[in-house]
């Protein structure tokens, strides 16, 4: 498991002990700072880094340490998608996972001894989420977050992972997952979900006021401020998303990138690339239903950047944590928009639980 850790000066010594314990247990550690216990620092500077790493799926979980743990827990819970639990013993650490699905554990270095902290970390990492009635409660928290998104996300310069979990999107995604859904219905659902996702993907587009005349009177209305857009599907499965997006932004130009995944190496192999000649002047949405290993999506974005593309976002119906991490490592400046982040990849590189091979289901080839 990849775990982001961070502390202020008061928590530095305990953080270092936890890092060593995690490494010895076979975990990958992403140290977000601080780098010394001798220099006084401000805990928000380090807490936000680790919380952002977890929220963007660059790390699967996080552990934060300060003097009491209170400051770090306040910081982490300001970040959308974070459920940080300040725990004081084995029981609270276990329950924070079992009932709250906490993705960040917060510890107070001046409250806990090293042995107790190490025991809590082991228990917290091993304990599964119970689900059941607790899912409904966590969904209420997510709904509130989505309705009151914080300014940190809006001000981000790139590299976010934005999960679009509107009830209609979740409902239609559930229908798509069902193996009994026909190819025709699957194609319709892909277009519908892609269209619904456009609302969030284009939320940042600038507007300007213009004067028009209605059948009754003159008035001023808003229009998109001369923004040039391009949609670039990754062939072949990405084609299924294009029409749903074009219904909302019909003036966007469409490019195509041909990639397939080698079944043995799971590496992308490219065979075609055709982009609008003014791609450098456009905001580009790369569309690919499945972000699995991340290889094809990363290669597609590299092709676009090599040809002058600057502002790029990736739009996928489903993503796996492994793919998100690999993609962000390759393109830390590119946002990912997805309808869901699933559990993991299986031995064949398929997303679990996923929805199967999107291309085969779209075109009825398997």
Record keyword descriptors for this entry:
2 domains, 5-stranded parallel beta sheet, alpha/beta, Ribose 5-phosphate Isomerase B, Chain: A, 366 residues, single chain, 9-stranded mixed beta sheet, 18 strands, uracil phosphoribosyltransferase activity, Rossmann fold
Write the layout of secondary structure elements.
Layout: E1 2-7, H1 12-24, E2 28-31, H2 43-55, E3 61-66, H3 70-76, E4 84-86, H4 90-98, E5 104-108, H5 114-126, H6 133-147, H7 151-154, E6 161-163, H8 167-177, H9 183-201, E7 207-213, E8 218-224, E9 229-235, H10 239-246, E10 253-254, E11 256-261, E12 268-274, E13 283-287, E14 290-291, H11 295-306, E15 311-319, H12 321-330, E16 335-341, E17 344-345, E18 351-352, H13 358-363
Parallel strand pairs: 1-2, 1-3, 3-5, 4-5, 6-16, 9-10, 9-11, 9-13, 13-15, 14-15, 15-16
Antiparallel strand pairs: 7-8, 11-12, 17-18
């Amino acid at each position: 498991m990849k775990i982001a850790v961070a502390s202020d000066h008061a928590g530095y010594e305990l953080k270092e002990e936890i890092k060593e314990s995690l490494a010895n247990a076979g975990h990958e550690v992403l140290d977000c700072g601080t780098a010394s216990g001798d220099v006084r620092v401000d805990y928000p500077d380090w807490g936000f880094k680790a919380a952002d790493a977890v929220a963007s799926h660059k790390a699967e979980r996080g552990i934060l340490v300060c003097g009491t743990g209170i400051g770090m827990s306040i910081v982490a819970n300001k970040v959308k998608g974070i459920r940080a639990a300040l725990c004081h013993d084995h029981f609270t650490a276990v329950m924070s996972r079992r009932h709250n699905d906490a993705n960040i554990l917060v510890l107070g270095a001046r409250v806990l001894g090293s042995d107790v902290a190490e025991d809590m970390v082991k228990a917290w990492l091993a304990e599964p989420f119970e689900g059941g009635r607790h899912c409904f409660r966590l969904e209420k928290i997510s709904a509130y977050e989505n309705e009151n998104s914080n300014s940190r996300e809006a001000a981000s310069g790139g590299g976010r992972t934005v999960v679009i979990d509107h009830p209609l999107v979740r409902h239609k995604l559930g229908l798509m997952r069902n193996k009994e859904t026909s190819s025709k219905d699957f194609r319709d659902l892909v277009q519908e979900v892609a269209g619904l996702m456009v609302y969030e993907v284009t939320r940042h587009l600038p507007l300007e006021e213009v004067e028009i005349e209605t059948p009754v009177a003159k008035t001023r209305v808003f229009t998109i401020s001369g923004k040039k857009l391009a949609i670039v599907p990754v062939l072949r499965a990405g084609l299924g998303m294009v029409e749903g997006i074009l219904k909302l932004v019909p003036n966007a130009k469409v490019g195509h990138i041909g990639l397939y995944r080698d079944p043995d190496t799971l590496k992308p192999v490219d065979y075609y690339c055709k982009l609008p000649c003014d791609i450098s002047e456009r905001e580009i949405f790369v569309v690919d239903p499945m972000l699995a290993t991340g290889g094809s999506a990363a290669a597609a974005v590299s092709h676009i950047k090599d040809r002058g593309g600057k502002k790029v976002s990736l739009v996928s119906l489903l993503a796996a944590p492994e793919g998100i991490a690999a993609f962000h490592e390759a393109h830390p400046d590119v946002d990912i928009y997805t309808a869901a982040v699933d559990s993991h990849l299986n031995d064949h590189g398929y997303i679990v639980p996923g929805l199967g091979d999107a291309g085969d289901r779209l075109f009825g080839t398997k």
